[in-house]
Amino acid sequence: MYAQMVKSEAAQDDPEKLAAFQARIDAGEKIEPKDWMPAAYRKTLIRQIGQHAHSEIVGQLPEGNWITRAPTLERKAILLAKVQDEAGHGLYLYCAAETLGVSRDELTEMLLDGRMKYSSIFNYPTLNWSDIGAVGWLVDGAAIINQVPLQRTSFGPYSRAMIRVCKEESFHARQGFDAIRKMAEGTPEQKKMAQDSVNRLWFPALMMFGPSDKESVHSEQSMAWKIKMNTNDELRQKFVDQTVPQIEFLGLDLPDPGIKWNEERGHYDYTDPDWSEFFDVIKGNGPCNTDRLAARNKAWDDGAWVRDGLMAHAKKKAAASVAAE
Amino acid sequence: MTRDEAFLQFLLRMGDNTLILGHRVSEWCGHSPVLEEDIALANTALDLIGQTQFWLGLAGEVQGDGKSADDIAFLRDVWDFRNLLLVEVPNGDFGRTLMRQFLFDAWHSIQLGHLMKSSDERVAAIAEKASKEVAYHLERSADTVVGLGDGTEESHRRMQESLDYLWPYVGEMFQSDEVDAEMVAAGIAPDPASLRDDYDALITRILADATLTIPDSRFGHKGGRTGKMHTEHLGHLLTQMQWLQRAYPGSNW
Ligand SMILES: [Fe+2]
Ligand SMILES: [Fe+2]
Ligand SMILES: [Fe+2]
């Protein structure tokens, strides 16, 4: 989600340094970890990159939900490879965040105790096999629309992480479309599953772009700093315009009766998602928030002895090699 | 038993091991102790499922009635499975999962080393490809077993408990029967019993580094690779794994 819920802080930095910093950004230079940066820039980036990393990690859960039930060996392999990629994305993003002076463990603690968020989409359940196709197609598809512009973001490590991540996300989106296409073109039951997925996941996917810009008070500073490259509404429109013809191609019914081509605007009109539902999900009241966080907390708590054991062993080995010198 | 019948059994044994272990390992997705392990476990499961496609694909070919690897994986019942009991036992904690992986990888790497020289070119080719993946699995599982065995008091205790729990499932890997005799005669696969010395040497070295004690008993449960008596766990695994294929037969996925 990436760009959703980003807030920037009122600047309290030296105005001269700030102006020079802004000039570098305006000139299209990349900011690197060792460079001076405003405290609010750093803080906003930590939040944004951290949330993105957490989303990759929590996002393993709804997809992992179907790994043991994947209907063929090939589908199981594709899904395993995808989930492995997502964990890899989490890893590069945590590394990018670490260059800003926060450790992966600190970020993890903030996820686990609810101080940091992850994408609202992963608080929705995956209920039938077709959801796995729909997640790749719609959710990774929406993520790509959010992330492609971020390849040009001003912070070097984030921009480089996005370039790498976007390549894999496009692959996921194509595979997802292929999976749901099999369903849409399959038996009546399979087609019913595909329709159910699109109906259920459409609005949550639209919410991935965050609330309307009219309500998003902090986006101006982030845009000036090139942490955010487009408004939420622009990106959402792009997603709708790209996805509606794909739904039609699949021969599925549109999930929103408000979808209509608007000749004058040159875009599809659509019904805005229910933002009160979105804010409920963000506050922790989505269908899966409690279970998702509980699963991550359990994994972390149950894994403590493993992390401690491996750390203790590494220390013993290091001590032994020093003693041998 | 004809040579083809024995060959089919042998291929099912190979493919069911990788299928069932791959399934078990994939259950960890999103729940492992640290991100690097999530990645490594997914990667291991992915390799094992890939190997399954080859072994069961060849099994279908040898069987000759048009069954695909998917038909074999998703449409048989418990008594048709030929995997070792070791790979079907539940994951337990992360320590048990990695100990099971190590005990299997050690056997698997030795077995594949022999199969690379198989008189059947198809078997040799699958073994060649799989052995590269399995060398990496073994390196990783051995390192983790050593790290956790020789880590903290708690990690040591848990790893010893895992070894004690899993040890009675090790012996089955080395039990030879008439299928194996036929494979040896055809030069397709080695006699399982002949792998035991190499296996013992390998695991004794690693488990000593891990400061773990190999149990005295040589008692081994059996019944997986012959299909005579699986554990109660396999049926539950299959109900999950096969559900979509069973509930919506004849669909394309
Ligand atoms: Fe991702
Ligand atoms: Fe992402
Ligand atoms: Fe993805």
TrEMBL record, chain A:
Domain of life of the native organism: Bacteria
Record-annotated membrane-spanning stretches: none
InterPro entries: Aromatic_CoA_ox/epox, Ferritin-like, Ferritin-like_SF, PaaA, PaaA_PaaC
Pfam families given in the database record: PaaA_PaaC
Protein name (database record): 1,2-phenylacetyl-CoA epoxidase subunit A
Lineage: Bacteria, Pseudomonadati, Pseudomonadota, Alphaproteobacteria, Rhodobacterales
TrEMBL record, chain B:
Pfam families: PaaA_PaaC (PF05138)
Record's GO cellular component terms: cytosol
GO biological process: phenylacetate catabolic process
Entry coiled-coil feature ranges: none
PANTHER family referenced in this protein's UniProt entry, alphabetically: 1,2-PHENYLACETYL-COA EPOXIDASE, SUBUNIT C, PHENYLACETIC ACID DEGRADATION PROTEIN PAA
Name assigned to this protein: Phenylacetate-CoA oxygenase subunit PaaC
Taxonomic path: Bacteria, Pseudomonadati, Pseudomonadota, Alphaproteobacteria, Rhodobacterales
Gene transcribed to yield this protein: paaC
